[in-house]
Design goal:
Structural class: alpha+beta
Strand order of the largest sheet: 1-18-14-17-16-15-6-8-7
Radius of gyration: 21 Å
Number of helices: 11
Protein name: FAD-dependent oxidoreductase
Helix content: 25-40%
Pfam families: DAO
Organism: Deinococcus actinosclerus
Distance between the termini: 26 Å
């Protein structure tokens, strides 16, 4: 799939950080990871740290698919509000999913502290504002549900919201637990770190066919590639995001396009473009979302529509850009931004807002790490942990929440 249009900010600002060769000869590994975006990079890091022999492939240049189009807001809040998720999954699993995403932000912080640079990671609060008065009533219920779950969240009325953040809306929730990161730089550094432990990374190499073991317990998978070389592996993890149906045989998510822009750096008088530099998003669906970058830019996104074709997405981009510019001006009128980059990317929505992580069916050694939704990176952090544990024979109950057959 052609996963993005326009001029994505992250690969342009970072340049080609690392290069990886295509597969030139047959390989053998404990684990084959298909996909070298942020999810595959997190898996390679976790698996290699556990002492496993890892091969990673990607049909593109590493991290040039959905990762390069991500706006990388790190949130524990799931696209499905907790009050709505509880009836879908049960209270215990819904609350646990929220806590897992919150813990993942700390895990990203710890990872970036060990890398050559901080990958643009910043701990940020998350401001979730009501798009209308009806949603303001919902936020009161959401505040109560999160408080019962032990999450740190504050309810703001219209007056407090305006006074503290300069935003005009009926109400909002403010959570101190959030973050932002440069997803392209993080993926590249993680792949390089895994490579230093012996992992082999091959990009511009497409797995065209996957032969499953004849004896499910003893034989290896054989992955055939367009490079006429094969990879044999005891385990296979598919981390190809919205292209995973090729290996699964069915689609698990509804595909959408989301549009985004990054401004030129904006002069800052008090160290932040808005109070605390928090992540900002709204209750409307599809929702508007915004963050800052280390060099003082605003990244804003939204205007989602159904995915049809790359050509149609490309044609829609100029008008979507103008709508985002108008919405940014209305949301934060004290800023006077100039757009530097605008792009669109494909993403997937699931029926409950949760990722799909785990085996196709119980006992399979073909695993999936599909971090669908608005907080895909936090899901991918947990996928790397959960699947590494599973491969090592230490499966936890958390996998049940994200199972593919739910």
């Amino acid at each position: 799939m052609d996963l993005r249009s326009g001029r994505a900010f992250w690969p342009l600002t970072n340049g080609l950080m690392h290069t990886y060769p295509p597969l030139g000869s047959d390989e053998r590994a404990d684990v084959l990871v298909i996909g070298a975006g942020i999810t595959g990079a997190l898996l390679a890091e976790a698996l290699s740290a556990a002492g496993l022999d890892v091969v990673v492939t990607d049909l593109r240049d590493a991290a040039f698919g959905s990762t390069s189009a991500s706006t990388a807001l790190l949130q524990y809040e799931i696209d499905t509000n907790l009050v709505d998720l509880i009836p879908m999954t049960g209270q215990a699993d819904a609350e646990r999913a929220y806590h897992l995403c919150r813990e993942a932000i700390g895990m990203v912080r710890d990872l970036t502290a060990e890398l050559p640079d901080d990958c643009g990671f910043r701990e940020r609060g998350s401001l979730y504002y009501a798009s209308n008065r009806r949603d303001a009533r919902m936020l009161a219920q959401e505040h109560a549900a999160r408080t019962r779950a032990g999450l740190n969240v504050e309810h703001l009325d219209a007056r407090s919201l305006k006074a503290r953040f300069g935003i005009t809306a009926p109400a909002a929730l403010f959570s101190p637990d959030g973050g932002e990161v440069d997803p392209y730089r993080l993926a590249q550094h993680l792949l390089k770190r895994a490579q230093g432990r012996g992992a082999r990374v091959y990009d511009r190499t497409e797995v065209t066919r996957l032969d499953e073991p004849r004896d499910g317990r003893r034989d290896d998978f054989t992955a055939h590639t367009d490079r006429h070389a094969k990879i044999q592996a005891r385990w296979v993890v598919v981390a190809t995001g919205y292209e995973a149906e090729k290996f699964l045989g069915r689609r698990l998510a509804q595909l959408k396009n989301s549009y985004a822009l990054a401004t030129e750096p904006i002069e800052q008088t008090d160290g932040e473009l808005w109070p605390t530099g928090c992540l900002i998003w709204e209750t409307a669906r599809p929702y508007l979302y915004a963050r800052t970058t280390q060099d003082g830019r605003v990244v804003i996104g939204g205007e989602d529509d159904n995915h049809h074709s790359p050509a149609r997405r490309e044609r829609a981009l100029p008008a979507k850009q103008k709508r985002l510019e108008r919405k940014l001006g209305k949301l934060l009128p004290h800023l006077h931004p100039e757009t530097a980059f605008a792009w669109a990317g494909t993403f997937g929505e699931t029926k409950d807002g949760l990722a799909y992580i785990g085996p196709r069916q119980t006992g399979d050694r073909l695993l999936f790490a599909l971090g669908y939704g608005g907080n895909g990176i936090t899901y991918s952090v947990q996928a790397a942990r959960l699947l590494t544990d599973l491969i090592q024979g230490e499966e936890t109950g958390d996998l049940r929440i994200f199972r593919l057959d739910r």
